[in-house]
């Protein structure tokens, strides 16, 4: 989360950000424990099943950061298919807040630039292929 309190010093913004992140982690921990408790007690599942359930949740947490249409699929299942009376996600906000595009390594960037340079050399030497209309 980025601090939007421009009137604060950089140090104060960092303190505010760390405190906000700590509150978010504490809330997430409460929710994690609650979900695991409810699953275990209502479904009468043991430790192994509860751990599998939690591993599936963690996979979904990873997906929400790497899959740009994750929230569409959540709404499609819960709202469209199961007909829960839930508000749909604000997809622009969810993507902005959670999606993290894959990062390329420095080596991958260098390889891409080298490949483009070779393509440019080829085109300059041979010209562009003629297009059929």
Explain how this protein is built.
- The chain contains 5 helices and no strands.
- The chain has helices spanning 10-42, 47-66, 70-81, 91-98, 106-126.
- It is extended, with a radius of gyration of 24 Å.
Main sheet makeup: none
Distance between the termini: 51 Å
Which whole number gives the mean pLDDT?
Answer: 87
Helix/strand/pairing class, anyone?
mainly alpha
In the predicted model, the low-confidence regions spanning at least 5 consecutive residues are none
Q: What's the alpha carbon Rg, rounded to whole Å? A: 24 Å
Helix content: over 70%
Strand residue content: under 5%
Tally of separate helices: 5
The number of distinct β-strands equals 0
**N to C succession of SSEs:** HHHHH
What is the 3D shape? extended
What would a concise description of this structure say?
The protein is an all-alpha fold and 133 residues long. The protein has helices at 10-42, 47-66, 70-81, 91-98, 106-126. It contains five helices and no strands.
Task: List the topology elements.
Elements: H1 10-42, H2 47-66, H3 70-81, H4 91-98, H5 106-126
């Amino acid at each position: 989360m980025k601090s939007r309190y421009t009137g604060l010093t950089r140090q104060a913004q960092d303190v505010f950000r760390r405190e906000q992140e700590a509150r978010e982690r504490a809330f997430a921990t409460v929710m994690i424990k609650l979900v695991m408790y409810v699953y275990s007690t209502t479904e009468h599942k043991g430790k192994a099943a509860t751990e599998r359930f939690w591993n599936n949740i963690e996979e979904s947490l990873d997906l929400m950061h790497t899959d740009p249409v994750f929230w569409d699929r959540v709404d499609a299942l819960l709202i469209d298919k199961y007909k829960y009376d839930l508000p749909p996600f604000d997809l622009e906000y969810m993507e902005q807040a959670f999606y993290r595009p894959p990062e390329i390594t420095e080596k991958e960037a260098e390889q891409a630039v080298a490949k483009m340079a070779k393509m440019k050399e080829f085109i300059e030497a041979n010209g562009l292929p003629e297009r059929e209309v």
